[in-house]
Write a structure and sequence with these properties.
Helices cover 33% and strands 21% of the residues. The chain is an alpha+beta fold. 15% of the residues are buried.
C-alpha cells in the first residue's frame, strides 16, 4: 500500500513538472512569435541592421554611415525607397549609454535613446500608440523629441497634459517635447525610451 502511494505521488509530480515545462515552452514560443505584431503593418516591415560585433556573418549597412553627410544619407534612403515594393524607409540608431535628461526641474538618468534623421518615416513605418502631442509635430522641424510615458511621468508626474511643447535637456543640448507615446512593449525589436 505504501509503495503504491509513493509510486502514485512520483507519477503526479512527474506529470506536474511535465505540464509546467510544456506550458513554459509554449508561452516562450508565443512571445517570440509575437515580436512587432502590435504594429499596424507588421507583416510588411523589414529591417536592415548594422552592428558592431565582429561575430556577425552577413551584415548589410550603409557605407560610412557614421561619417556620412545628411545629403549622402538621404541618397541612401532614396535608393532603398526606389527599390521595388518598398513604400517607405526610416533610418535610426539606438544607444544604450546612460544619459541625463532634465525637464520641469527634475533630472533623471536613462538609456536606450533612439536618434533618427527620418522622424516622419519612423512614425509611419512603426505605429506607436500616441498619448499626447502629434507625430506630425515630431516630424516637423529639428530638435524635437518623443518620450515614452514612463520617462514623461518620471519628469512631469502623472499629469502629462502640460508636458508637450516643454523644453527637455539631453546632455548639453535642448529639445522640444513633441509627443508622448505608450511605453514600448517588451516584444519590440526597436527598444527605446526617448
Amino acid at each position: 500500500y505504501v509503495r503504491n502511494r509513493a509510486f502514485t505521488g512520483l507519477n503526479l509530480l512527474s506529470l506536474t513538472i511535465g505540464l509546467f515545462v510544456a506550458y513554459t515552452a509554449i508561452s516562450y514560443i508565443r512571445f517570440e512569435l509575437s515580436y512587432d505584431t502590435f504594429h499596424q503593418h507588421a507583416d510588411s516591415v523589414y529591417r536592415l541592421i548594422r552592428t558592431y560585433r565582429s561575430q556577425d556573418y552577413s551584415v548589410i549597412g550603409f557605407a560610412n554611415w557614421d561619417a556620412a553627410t545628411n545629403r549622402a544619407q538621404q541618397q541612401q534612403l532614396n535608393a532603398l525607397k526606389n527599390a521595388t515594393g518598398v513604400v517607405d524607409a526610416a533610418q535610426f540608431i539606438t544607444s544604450d549609454a546612460p544619459t541625463f535628461l532634465e525637464a520641469n526641474g527634475r533630472q533623471i538618468q536613462t538609456k536606450n535613446l533612439l536618434t533618427t534623421n527620418t522622424p516622419g518615416a519612423f512614425c509611419s513605418v512603426f505605429t506607436w500608440t500616441l498619448q499626447q502631442g502629434t507625430f506630425q509635430n515630431f516630424a516637423d522641424g529639428t530638435n524635437k523629441v518623443m518620450l515614452t510615458a514612463r520617462i514623461a511621468r518620471s519628469l512631469f508626474g502623472d499629469d502629462l497634459t502640460n508636458a508637450v511643447q516643454k523644453r527637455l535637456k539631453i546632455g548639453v543640448d535642448y529639445y522640444t517635447i513633441a509627443a508622448i507615446i505608450d511605453d514600448v512593449p517588451l516584444n519590440s525589436h526597436v527598444d527605446f525610451t526617448v
